[in-house]
TrEMBL record:
This is Flavin-containing monooxygenase. Its EC number is 1.14.13.-. Its cofactor is FAD. Keywords: FAD, Flavoprotein, Monooxygenase, NADP, Oxidoreductase. It holds the Pfam family FMO-like. Belongs to the FAD-binding monooxygenase family. It comes from Streptomyces yanii. It is an enzyme of class 1 (oxidoreductase). The keyword Kinase does not apply. The keyword Flavoprotein applies. InterPro entries: FAD-binding_Monooxygenases, FAD/NAD-bd_sf, Flavin_mOase-like. It comes from the Bacteria. One of its GO terms (molecular function) is monooxygenase activity.
Length: 538
Protein backbone atom coordinates (compact mmCIF):
# COMPACT_ATOMS: atom_id res chain seq x y z
CA UNK A 1 0.00 0.00 0.00
CA UNK A 2 1.05 3.60 -0.51
CA UNK A 3 2.43 4.99 2.72
CA UNK A 4 4.14 8.05 1.29
CA UNK A 5 1.60 10.38 2.90
CA UNK A 6 1.80 8.72 6.27
CA UNK A 7 4.12 10.57 8.61
CA UNK A 8 7.01 8.55 10.01
CA UNK A 9 6.02 7.35 13.44
CA UNK A 10 8.59 7.50 16.25
CA UNK A 11 8.53 7.34 20.02
CA UNK A 12 10.49 10.53 20.55
CA UNK A 13 11.54 13.62 18.61
CA UNK A 14 14.42 15.55 20.16
CA UNK A 15 15.04 19.10 18.97
CA UNK A 16 18.63 20.30 19.29
CA UNK A 17 22.07 18.66 19.28
CA UNK A 18 23.71 20.65 22.04
CA UNK A 19 24.93 19.10 25.28
CA UNK A 20 21.38 18.43 26.51
CA UNK A 21 19.91 17.04 23.28
CA UNK A 22 22.85 14.73 22.61
CA UNK A 23 22.51 13.07 25.96
CA UNK A 24 18.71 12.78 25.75
CA UNK A 25 19.01 11.01 22.39
CA UNK A 26 21.70 8.67 23.67
CA UNK A 27 19.84 7.84 26.87
CA UNK A 28 16.38 7.31 25.37
CA UNK A 29 17.75 5.29 22.49
CA UNK A 30 19.51 3.10 25.03
CA UNK A 31 16.13 2.26 26.57
CA UNK A 32 14.90 1.01 23.21
CA UNK A 33 12.82 4.03 22.18
CA UNK A 34 12.89 5.05 18.54
CA UNK A 35 14.31 8.56 18.46
CA UNK A 36 14.71 11.16 15.71
CA UNK A 37 16.77 14.25 16.42
CA UNK A 38 16.83 17.51 14.49
CA UNK A 39 19.45 20.23 14.57
CA UNK A 40 19.48 23.48 12.59
CA UNK A 41 23.29 23.67 12.56
CA UNK A 42 25.25 21.34 10.29
CA UNK A 43 27.00 19.73 13.26
CA UNK A 44 26.56 18.97 16.95
CA UNK A 45 27.46 21.54 19.62
CA UNK A 46 24.53 23.91 20.13
CA UNK A 47 25.75 27.10 21.77
CA UNK A 48 29.34 26.03 21.07
CA UNK A 49 28.57 25.54 17.41
CA UNK A 50 27.32 29.12 16.95
CA UNK A 51 29.43 31.14 19.39
CA UNK A 52 32.83 30.99 17.63
CA UNK A 53 33.91 34.55 18.37
CA UNK A 54 37.58 35.03 19.29
CA UNK A 55 38.17 34.21 22.95
CA UNK A 56 35.00 32.11 23.39
CA UNK A 57 35.67 29.96 26.40
CA UNK A 58 33.59 28.17 29.03
CA UNK A 59 33.37 29.68 32.52
CA UNK A 60 33.01 26.26 34.17
CA UNK A 61 36.24 24.27 34.56
CA UNK A 62 36.65 21.80 31.72
CA UNK A 63 37.02 18.84 34.09
CA UNK A 64 33.53 19.62 35.39
CA UNK A 65 31.98 20.83 32.13
CA UNK A 66 31.96 17.33 30.70
CA UNK A 67 29.64 14.35 30.80
CA UNK A 68 29.70 12.11 33.84
CA UNK A 69 27.51 9.28 32.52
CA UNK A 70 30.32 7.14 31.19
CA UNK A 71 33.35 6.41 33.34
CA UNK A 72 35.63 5.47 30.45
CA UNK A 73 34.71 8.69 28.61
CA UNK A 74 35.72 10.87 31.54
CA UNK A 75 38.89 8.83 32.09
CA UNK A 76 39.95 8.81 28.45
CA UNK A 77 39.29 12.40 27.41
CA UNK A 78 42.20 14.82 28.04
CA UNK A 79 41.41 18.50 28.56
CA UNK A 80 44.32 20.74 27.67
CA UNK A 81 43.37 23.78 29.78
CA UNK A 82 41.63 24.57 33.06
CA UNK A 83 38.96 26.48 31.11
CA UNK A 84 38.37 25.02 27.67
CA UNK A 85 38.09 27.13 24.53
CA UNK A 86 35.16 26.83 22.14
CA UNK A 87 37.18 24.77 19.60
CA UNK A 88 38.21 22.28 22.28
CA UNK A 89 34.63 21.91 23.55
CA UNK A 90 33.51 21.31 19.96
CA UNK A 91 36.18 18.62 19.59
CA UNK A 92 34.89 17.01 22.78
CA UNK A 93 31.23 17.07 21.73
CA UNK A 94 32.11 15.67 18.29
CA UNK A 95 34.08 12.95 20.01
CA UNK A 96 31.10 12.09 22.23
CA UNK A 97 28.73 12.07 19.24
CA UNK A 98 31.05 9.77 17.28
CA UNK A 99 32.00 7.51 20.16
CA UNK A 100 28.37 6.78 21.07
CA UNK A 101 27.24 6.89 17.44
CA UNK A 102 24.69 9.60 18.26
CA UNK A 103 24.81 11.31 14.86
CA UNK A 104 22.88 8.55 13.10
CA UNK A 105 19.75 9.62 15.02
CA UNK A 106 20.01 13.25 13.88
CA UNK A 107 19.11 15.14 10.76
CA UNK A 108 21.36 18.22 10.59
CA UNK A 109 20.85 21.58 8.87
CA UNK A 110 17.18 21.09 9.57
CA UNK A 111 15.01 23.17 11.88
CA UNK A 112 11.82 21.97 13.48
CA UNK A 113 9.19 24.55 12.58
CA UNK A 114 6.11 23.25 14.39
CA UNK A 115 4.86 20.65 16.83
CA UNK A 116 1.13 20.13 17.10
CA UNK A 117 -0.75 17.95 19.57
CA UNK A 118 -3.45 15.59 18.33
CA UNK A 119 -5.83 15.60 21.27
CA UNK A 120 -7.40 12.27 20.26
CA UNK A 121 -4.20 10.24 20.26
CA UNK A 122 -2.08 12.61 22.39
CA UNK A 123 0.65 12.30 19.78
CA UNK A 124 2.66 15.18 18.36
CA UNK A 125 2.86 16.05 14.69
CA UNK A 126 6.29 17.54 14.13
CA UNK A 127 7.23 19.43 10.95
CA UNK A 128 10.62 20.56 9.73
CA UNK A 129 11.84 23.17 7.26
CA UNK A 130 13.06 20.23 5.18
CA UNK A 131 9.43 19.27 4.58
CA UNK A 132 9.48 16.24 6.85
CA UNK A 133 6.42 15.35 8.91
CA UNK A 134 6.67 12.98 11.86
CA UNK A 135 4.27 11.59 14.38
CA UNK A 136 5.88 11.34 17.80
CA UNK A 137 4.59 10.16 21.13
CA UNK A 138 6.98 12.44 23.02
CA UNK A 139 8.23 15.84 21.94
CA UNK A 140 11.47 16.83 23.67
CA UNK A 141 12.94 20.30 23.24
CA UNK A 142 16.63 20.84 23.99
CA UNK A 143 16.83 24.11 22.09
CA UNK A 144 19.10 26.04 24.42
CA UNK A 145 18.62 29.10 26.60
CA UNK A 146 21.05 31.30 24.69
CA UNK A 147 20.37 30.43 21.06
CA UNK A 148 18.10 33.17 19.78
CA UNK A 149 20.39 36.13 19.15
CA UNK A 150 19.36 39.69 19.95
CA UNK A 151 20.38 42.59 17.71
CA UNK A 152 19.07 45.90 19.00
CA UNK A 153 17.13 47.88 16.44
CA UNK A 154 19.55 50.77 16.08
CA UNK A 155 18.42 53.16 13.32
CA UNK A 156 20.49 52.99 10.16
CA UNK A 157 22.19 49.66 10.91
CA UNK A 158 21.46 48.42 7.38
CA UNK A 159 23.20 51.38 5.81
CA UNK A 160 26.61 50.56 7.33
CA UNK A 161 29.16 50.00 4.56
CA UNK A 162 31.45 47.68 6.54
CA UNK A 163 30.78 44.19 7.87
CA UNK A 164 28.63 43.53 10.94
CA UNK A 165 28.80 40.43 13.11
CA UNK A 166 26.94 38.98 16.09
CA UNK A 167 29.05 37.00 18.53
CA UNK A 168 26.36 34.30 18.63
CA UNK A 169 26.36 33.84 14.84
CA UNK A 170 30.06 34.07 14.18
CA UNK A 171 31.28 33.12 10.68
CA UNK A 172 32.72 29.62 10.71
CA UNK A 173 35.67 30.65 8.60
CA UNK A 174 36.64 33.26 11.22
CA UNK A 175 37.14 37.00 10.82
CA UNK A 176 40.38 38.91 10.23
CA UNK A 177 40.27 42.39 11.76
CA UNK A 178 43.89 43.25 10.86
CA UNK A 179 44.22 46.91 9.95
CA UNK A 180 40.56 47.70 10.67
CA UNK A 181 38.78 50.15 12.97
CA UNK A 182 36.41 47.94 14.89
CA UNK A 183 33.49 48.76 17.19
CA UNK A 184 32.16 46.28 19.74
CA UNK A 185 28.69 46.95 21.17
CA UNK A 186 28.01 45.11 24.43
CA UNK A 187 30.06 44.14 27.46
CA UNK A 188 28.51 40.90 28.67
CA UNK A 189 30.49 37.63 28.60
CA UNK A 190 30.76 37.61 24.81
CA UNK A 191 32.01 41.19 24.59
CA UNK A 192 34.39 40.83 27.52
CA UNK A 193 35.87 37.58 26.17
CA UNK A 194 36.32 38.84 22.61
CA UNK A 195 37.48 42.42 23.28
CA UNK A 196 41.08 41.54 24.35
CA UNK A 197 41.64 39.43 21.22
CA UNK A 198 40.04 41.88 18.82
CA UNK A 199 42.13 44.68 20.37
CA UNK A 200 45.32 42.76 19.66
CA UNK A 201 44.42 42.28 16.01
CA UNK A 202 42.57 45.43 14.97
CA UNK A 203 44.16 48.78 14.13
CA UNK A 204 41.79 50.41 16.60
CA UNK A 205 38.95 49.21 18.82
CA UNK A 206 36.09 51.25 20.26
CA UNK A 207 34.03 49.51 22.94
CA UNK A 208 30.47 50.79 23.37
CA UNK A 209 29.34 50.01 26.91
CA UNK A 210 25.83 50.55 28.20
CA UNK A 211 26.21 48.78 31.58
CA UNK A 212 29.50 47.82 33.14
CA UNK A 213 29.76 44.21 34.28
CA UNK A 214 31.66 42.42 37.00
CA UNK A 215 34.44 40.33 35.53
CA UNK A 216 37.10 38.24 37.21
CA UNK A 217 40.22 36.73 35.67
CA UNK A 218 39.84 33.08 34.79
CA UNK A 219 43.23 32.16 36.16
CA UNK A 220 43.31 29.89 33.17
CA UNK A 221 46.30 27.58 32.75
CA UNK A 222 47.36 24.58 30.74
CA UNK A 223 46.71 21.23 32.42
CA UNK A 224 49.72 18.92 32.47
CA UNK A 225 49.61 15.16 32.73
CA UNK A 226 50.02 15.21 36.52
CA UNK A 227 47.12 17.65 36.99
CA UNK A 228 44.90 15.59 34.73
CA UNK A 229 45.80 12.37 36.53
CA UNK A 230 44.90 13.95 39.86
CA UNK A 231 41.57 15.26 38.53
CA UNK A 232 40.65 11.91 37.02
CA UNK A 233 41.54 10.00 40.18
CA UNK A 234 39.20 12.28 42.09
CA UNK A 235 36.34 12.20 39.62
CA UNK A 236 33.90 10.18 41.72
CA UNK A 237 34.08 12.60 44.64
CA UNK A 238 34.14 15.62 42.32
CA UNK A 239 30.89 14.55 40.72
CA UNK A 240 29.28 13.66 44.03
CA UNK A 241 29.97 17.15 45.37
CA UNK A 242 28.92 18.79 42.10
CA UNK A 243 25.52 17.07 42.25
CA UNK A 244 24.93 18.41 45.75
CA UNK A 245 26.23 21.88 45.00
CA UNK A 246 24.45 25.11 44.15
CA UNK A 247 26.03 25.46 40.72
CA UNK A 248 26.93 21.99 39.51
CA UNK A 249 30.63 22.18 40.24
CA UNK A 250 32.38 20.74 43.30
CA UNK A 251 32.74 23.95 45.29
CA UNK A 252 30.98 24.79 48.52
CA UNK A 253 30.56 28.27 49.97
CA UNK A 254 32.35 29.22 53.19
CA UNK A 255 30.32 27.79 56.10
CA UNK A 256 29.74 31.14 57.83
CA UNK A 257 27.98 34.33 56.88
CA UNK A 258 30.12 37.10 55.39
CA UNK A 259 30.03 39.50 58.32
CA UNK A 260 30.28 36.81 60.99
CA UNK A 261 33.95 36.17 60.27
CA UNK A 262 36.92 38.41 60.98
CA UNK A 263 38.13 40.89 58.38
CA UNK A 264 41.23 38.75 57.91
CA UNK A 265 39.29 35.56 57.33
CA UNK A 266 36.86 37.33 55.01
CA UNK A 267 39.67 38.65 52.82
CA UNK A 268 41.32 35.24 52.78
CA UNK A 269 38.07 33.64 51.63
CA UNK A 270 37.55 36.21 48.86
CA UNK A 271 41.17 35.81 47.82
CA UNK A 272 40.77 32.03 47.59
CA UNK A 273 37.68 32.34 45.38
CA UNK A 274 39.41 35.00 43.30
CA UNK A 275 42.21 32.54 42.65
CA UNK A 276 39.72 29.83 41.68
CA UNK A 277 38.62 32.32 39.07
CA UNK A 278 35.57 33.85 37.45
CA UNK A 279 31.99 32.99 38.19
CA UNK A 280 32.77 30.99 41.35
CA UNK A 281 33.32 34.30 43.11
CA UNK A 282 29.53 34.80 43.28
CA UNK A 283 29.26 32.18 46.03
CA UNK A 284 32.20 32.86 48.35
CA UNK A 285 29.84 33.15 51.31
CA UNK A 286 26.33 31.68 51.54
CA UNK A 287 24.66 35.09 52.04
CA UNK A 288 26.40 36.92 49.23
CA UNK A 289 23.39 36.92 46.93
CA UNK A 290 20.77 37.47 49.63
CA UNK A 291 22.23 40.16 51.90
CA UNK A 292 23.16 43.64 50.72
CA UNK A 293 25.91 44.21 53.27
CA UNK A 294 27.46 40.84 52.48
CA UNK A 295 27.26 41.59 48.77
CA UNK A 296 28.87 45.01 49.35
CA UNK A 297 31.84 43.35 51.05
CA UNK A 298 32.35 41.06 48.03
CA UNK A 299 31.89 44.01 45.72
CA UNK A 300 34.44 46.17 47.55
CA UNK A 301 37.07 43.41 47.37
CA UNK A 302 36.34 43.03 43.65
CA UNK A 303 36.65 46.78 43.04
CA UNK A 304 39.99 47.02 44.82
CA UNK A 305 41.37 44.17 42.71
CA UNK A 306 40.05 45.51 39.42
CA UNK A 307 41.04 49.15 39.86
CA UNK A 308 44.61 47.96 40.37
CA UNK A 309 44.54 46.54 36.83
CA UNK A 310 43.45 49.75 35.07
CA UNK A 311 45.89 52.65 34.50
CA UNK A 312 43.39 55.47 33.90
CA UNK A 313 41.16 56.26 36.88
CA UNK A 314 38.44 57.80 34.69
CA UNK A 315 38.29 54.62 32.60
CA UNK A 316 38.17 52.57 35.80
CA UNK A 317 35.22 54.67 37.02
CA UNK A 318 33.34 53.70 33.86
CA UNK A 319 34.23 50.02 34.22
CA UNK A 320 33.00 49.63 37.80
CA UNK A 321 29.28 48.75 37.81
CA UNK A 322 27.06 50.95 39.93
CA UNK A 323 23.68 49.60 38.85
CA UNK A 324 23.57 46.05 40.24
CA UNK A 325 24.96 43.96 43.11
CA UNK A 326 27.81 41.61 42.24
CA UNK A 327 26.64 38.21 40.98
CA UNK A 328 23.10 39.29 40.10
CA UNK A 329 24.16 39.12 36.48
CA UNK A 330 26.47 36.24 35.69
CA UNK A 331 30.00 37.26 36.69
CA UNK A 332 32.17 37.17 33.60
CA UNK A 333 35.30 35.02 33.50
CA UNK A 334 37.94 36.92 31.54
CA UNK A 335 41.49 36.79 30.29
CA UNK A 336 43.18 40.25 30.27
CA UNK A 337 39.95 42.20 29.95
CA UNK A 338 40.65 45.24 32.11
CA UNK A 339 44.31 45.43 31.01
CA UNK A 340 43.05 45.80 27.44
CA UNK A 341 41.92 49.35 28.29
CA UNK A 342 45.56 50.22 29.02
CA UNK A 343 46.36 49.79 25.33
CA UNK A 344 46.84 52.81 23.05
CA UNK A 345 44.51 51.47 20.37
CA UNK A 346 41.47 50.90 22.61
CA UNK A 347 38.82 53.40 23.64
CA UNK A 348 35.88 52.86 25.96
CA UNK A 349 32.71 54.83 25.27
CA UNK A 350 30.09 54.89 28.01
CA UNK A 351 26.59 55.03 26.57
CA UNK A 352 24.81 56.10 29.74
CA UNK A 353 23.63 59.61 29.02
CA UNK A 354 25.20 59.40 25.57
CA UNK A 355 23.44 56.61 23.70
CA UNK A 356 24.08 55.40 20.19
CA UNK A 357 21.77 57.53 18.09
CA UNK A 358 22.30 55.97 14.70
CA UNK A 359 24.54 53.88 12.53
CA UNK A 360 25.36 55.29 9.11
CA UNK A 361 27.49 54.22 6.18
CA UNK A 362 30.73 55.19 7.90
CA UNK A 363 30.22 54.32 11.54
CA UNK A 364 28.36 55.16 14.74
CA UNK A 365 26.85 58.49 15.76
CA UNK A 366 26.37 59.29 19.45
CA UNK A 367 23.76 61.48 21.11
CA UNK A 368 26.34 64.16 21.93
CA UNK A 369 27.02 64.61 18.21
CA UNK A 370 30.31 62.71 18.01
CA UNK A 371 30.73 60.39 15.04
CA UNK A 372 33.06 57.39 15.34
CA UNK A 373 34.35 56.05 12.04
CA UNK A 374 34.40 52.24 11.81
CA UNK A 375 35.21 49.50 9.30
CA UNK A 376 33.46 46.68 11.21
CA UNK A 377 30.87 46.42 13.98
CA UNK A 378 30.56 43.48 16.37
CA UNK A 379 27.26 43.03 18.15
CA UNK A 380 27.92 41.35 21.47
CA UNK A 381 24.37 42.19 22.44
CA UNK A 382 23.20 38.86 23.78
CA UNK A 383 20.12 36.74 23.35
CA UNK A 384 16.38 36.53 23.75
CA UNK A 385 17.28 34.14 26.54
CA UNK A 386 15.44 31.07 27.81
CA UNK A 387 12.25 31.49 25.79
CA UNK A 388 13.48 32.89 22.45
CA UNK A 389 14.42 29.56 20.88
CA UNK A 390 11.17 27.92 22.09
CA UNK A 391 9.09 30.82 20.77
CA UNK A 392 10.30 30.52 17.21
CA UNK A 393 8.79 27.03 16.92
CA UNK A 394 5.01 26.88 16.56
CA UNK A 395 4.07 24.59 19.45
CA UNK A 396 0.34 23.91 19.71
CA UNK A 397 -1.13 22.02 22.65
CA UNK A 398 -4.68 21.32 23.76
CA UNK A 399 -7.34 23.35 22.00
CA UNK A 400 -4.73 24.43 19.45
CA UNK A 401 -3.24 26.81 22.01
CA UNK A 402 0.17 28.22 21.14
CA UNK A 403 2.84 27.70 23.78
CA UNK A 404 4.04 31.20 23.03
CA UNK A 405 0.62 32.52 24.03
CA UNK A 406 0.47 30.34 27.14
CA UNK A 407 3.81 31.91 28.13
CA UNK A 408 2.98 35.47 27.14
CA UNK A 409 3.20 36.66 30.75
CA UNK A 410 6.38 34.64 31.34
CA UNK A 411 7.18 30.91 31.10
CA UNK A 412 4.80 28.67 33.08
CA UNK A 413 6.20 25.24 33.85
CA UNK A 414 6.08 22.61 36.53
CA UNK A 415 9.68 21.84 37.58
CA UNK A 416 10.80 23.35 34.27
CA UNK A 417 9.81 19.99 32.79
CA UNK A 418 6.06 19.95 32.28
CA UNK A 419 3.56 22.43 30.84
CA UNK A 420 -0.16 22.24 31.46
CA UNK A 421 -2.07 21.75 28.22
CA UNK A 422 1.01 20.22 26.55
CA UNK A 423 1.05 16.51 27.49
CA UNK A 424 4.17 14.51 26.59
CA UNK A 425 6.02 17.73 25.80
CA UNK A 426 9.26 18.34 27.69
CA UNK A 427 11.42 21.47 27.48
CA UNK A 428 14.80 20.43 28.91
CA UNK A 429 17.24 22.72 30.76
CA UNK A 430 15.02 25.74 30.18
CA UNK A 431 12.99 28.17 32.30
CA UNK A 432 11.87 26.83 35.68
CA UNK A 433 15.10 24.85 36.03
CA UNK A 434 18.47 25.94 37.44
CA UNK A 435 20.41 25.07 34.29
CA UNK A 436 21.56 28.57 33.33
CA UNK A 437 22.77 29.17 36.88
CA UNK A 438 24.61 25.86 36.90
CA UNK A 439 26.92 23.61 34.92
CA UNK A 440 24.65 22.81 32.00
CA UNK A 441 26.37 19.52 31.14
CA UNK A 442 25.35 18.02 34.47
CA UNK A 443 21.99 19.81 34.21
CA UNK A 444 21.42 18.13 30.84
CA UNK A 445 22.26 14.76 32.31
CA UNK A 446 19.97 15.41 35.28
CA UNK A 447 17.05 16.14 32.96
CA UNK A 448 17.93 13.29 30.61
CA UNK A 449 17.91 10.85 33.52
CA UNK A 450 14.65 12.19 34.89
CA UNK A 451 13.03 11.95 31.47
CA UNK A 452 14.26 8.42 30.90
CA UNK A 453 12.88 7.31 34.28
CA UNK A 454 9.60 9.06 33.55
CA UNK A 455 9.05 7.39 30.17
CA UNK A 456 9.91 4.02 31.66
CA UNK A 457 7.43 4.62 34.48
CA UNK A 458 4.67 5.45 31.99
CA UNK A 459 5.31 2.29 30.02
CA UNK A 460 5.67 0.02 33.02
CA UNK A 461 2.29 1.22 34.30
CA UNK A 462 0.50 1.35 30.97
CA UNK A 463 0.08 5.12 30.73
CA UNK A 464 -0.08 6.89 27.39
CA UNK A 465 0.81 10.33 28.52
CA UNK A 466 1.90 12.63 31.33
CA UNK A 467 0.77 16.22 31.80
CA UNK A 468 1.52 18.78 34.50
CA UNK A 469 -1.59 19.97 36.33
CA UNK A 470 -2.42 23.67 36.26
CA UNK A 471 -2.28 23.69 40.05
CA UNK A 472 1.25 22.27 40.05
CA UNK A 473 2.34 24.79 37.43
CA UNK A 474 0.89 27.63 39.47
CA UNK A 475 2.71 26.34 42.56
CA UNK A 476 6.05 26.09 40.76
CA UNK A 477 5.76 29.52 39.14
CA UNK A 478 5.09 30.94 42.59
CA UNK A 479 7.95 28.99 44.14
CA UNK A 480 10.42 30.17 41.47
CA UNK A 481 9.28 33.74 41.97
CA UNK A 482 9.38 33.61 45.76
CA UNK A 483 12.83 32.06 45.83
CA UNK A 484 14.15 34.75 43.49
CA UNK A 485 12.41 37.50 45.44
CA UNK A 486 14.24 36.34 48.58
CA UNK A 487 17.58 37.09 46.84
CA UNK A 488 19.17 40.16 45.31
CA UNK A 489 18.68 38.68 41.81
CA UNK A 490 15.59 40.78 41.08
CA UNK A 491 17.57 44.01 41.34
CA UNK A 492 19.58 43.61 38.13
CA UNK A 493 18.31 44.20 34.59
CA UNK A 494 19.51 40.75 33.59
CA UNK A 495 18.48 38.34 30.86
CA UNK A 496 17.36 36.01 33.70
CA UNK A 497 14.53 38.53 34.06
CA UNK A 498 14.04 39.12 30.36
CA UNK A 499 15.09 42.71 31.04
CA UNK A 500 17.43 42.88 28.02
CA UNK A 501 14.61 42.45 25.50
CA UNK A 502 12.27 45.41 24.98
CA UNK A 503 8.70 44.42 25.87
CA UNK A 504 9.55 41.04 27.42
CA UNK A 505 7.69 40.44 30.71
CA UNK A 506 9.89 40.96 33.75
CA UNK A 507 9.78 37.49 35.29
CA UNK A 508 12.72 35.71 36.91
CA UNK A 509 12.87 32.61 34.72
CA UNK A 510 15.44 30.22 36.26
CA UNK A 511 14.97 28.24 39.48
CA UNK A 512 17.37 29.99 41.85
CA UNK A 513 17.33 27.49 44.73
CA UNK A 514 20.42 25.60 43.58
CA UNK A 515 21.28 22.65 41.36
CA UNK A 516 21.49 20.12 44.20
CA UNK A 517 18.26 21.26 45.86
CA UNK A 518 16.46 21.14 42.51
CA UNK A 519 17.80 17.65 41.80
CA UNK A 520 16.32 16.49 45.10
CA UNK A 521 12.95 18.11 44.32
CA UNK A 522 12.56 16.44 40.93
CA UNK A 523 13.77 13.10 42.32
CA UNK A 524 11.16 13.29 45.10
CA UNK A 525 8.44 14.01 42.54
CA UNK A 526 9.44 10.92 40.56
CA UNK A 527 9.63 8.78 43.73
CA UNK A 528 6.14 9.89 44.74
CA UNK A 529 4.69 8.55 41.49
CA UNK A 530 4.90 11.95 39.75
CA UNK A 531 2.82 14.12 42.06
CA UNK A 532 1.69 17.29 40.30
CA UNK A 533 1.41 15.42 37.02
CA UNK A 534 -1.65 13.71 35.65
CA UNK A 535 -0.81 10.25 34.32
CA UNK A 536 -3.15 9.50 31.46
CA UNK A 537 -4.08 5.84 30.78
CA UNK A 538 -4.08 4.46 27.24
P1 LIG B 1 24.67 39.52 27.60
O1 LIG B 1 25.29 39.09 28.84
O2 LIG B 1 23.20 39.64 27.53
O3 LIG B 1 25.35 40.91 27.20
C1 LIG B 1 24.84 41.74 26.19
C2 LIG B 1 25.52 43.08 26.23
O4 LIG B 1 25.01 43.89 25.17
C3 LIG B 1 25.25 43.85 27.51
O5 LIG B 1 26.41 44.55 27.87
C4 LIG B 1 24.15 44.81 27.10
O6 LIG B 1 24.07 45.97 27.88
C5 LIG B 1 24.56 45.12 25.70
N1 LIG B 1 23.47 45.65 24.90
C6 LIG B 1 22.30 45.04 24.57
N2 LIG B 1 21.54 45.85 23.84
C7 LIG B 1 22.22 47.00 23.71
C8 LIG B 1 21.95 48.24 23.07
N3 LIG B 1 20.80 48.45 22.44
N4 LIG B 1 22.89 49.21 23.14
C9 LIG B 1 24.03 49.00 23.80
N5 LIG B 1 24.35 47.88 24.43
C10 LIG B 1 23.45 46.88 24.38
O7 LIG B 1 25.08 38.56 26.37
P2 LIG B 1 26.45 37.75 26.17
O8 LIG B 1 26.37 37.13 24.83
O9 LIG B 1 27.61 38.58 26.46
O10 LIG B 1 26.41 36.64 27.28
C11 LIG B 1 25.29 35.77 27.43
C12 LIG B 1 25.61 34.67 28.37
O11 LIG B 1 26.49 33.74 27.72
C13 LIG B 1 26.35 35.02 29.61
O12 LIG B 1 25.52 35.49 30.63
C14 LIG B 1 27.02 33.72 30.01
O13 LIG B 1 26.10 32.91 30.70
C15 LIG B 1 27.33 33.11 28.69
P3 LIG B 1 23.11 46.00 29.21
O14 LIG B 1 23.84 45.19 30.24
O15 LIG B 1 21.81 45.35 28.80
O16 LIG B 1 22.97 47.41 29.53
Amino acid sequence: SDTSNTPESVDVVVVGAGVTGLYAVHRLRGLGYSVRGFERGDDVGGVWYWNRYPGARCDVESVDYSYSFDESLQQEWDWSEKYATQPEIMRYLRHVADHFDIRRSYTFSTAVTSAELDEETLRWTVRTDGGEVLSARFCVFAVGCLSSTHRPGIPGVDTFAGATYHTGEWPHEGVDFTGLRVGVIGTGSSGIQSIPLIARQAAHLTVFQRSANYSIPAGNKPLDEAARREQKAGYAERRRLARLSGGGSPHMAHPDRTLEVSEEERRAAFEKRWELGGVLYSKTFPDQLTDRAANDAARAFWEEKVRARIDDAAVADLLVPTDHPIGTKRIVTDSDYYETYNRDNVRLVGLRGNAIERIDERGIGLADGEHIGLDAIVFATGFDAMTGAVDRIEVRGRGGRLLKDAWRGGPRTYLGLGVNGFPNFFNLTGPGSPSVLANVVLAGEQHGEWLADCLRHLDEHGYTAIEATEQAVEGWVTECHDRAAATLMMSANSWYLGANIPGKPRVFMPFVGGFGVYGQIIADVADSGYKGFELIPG
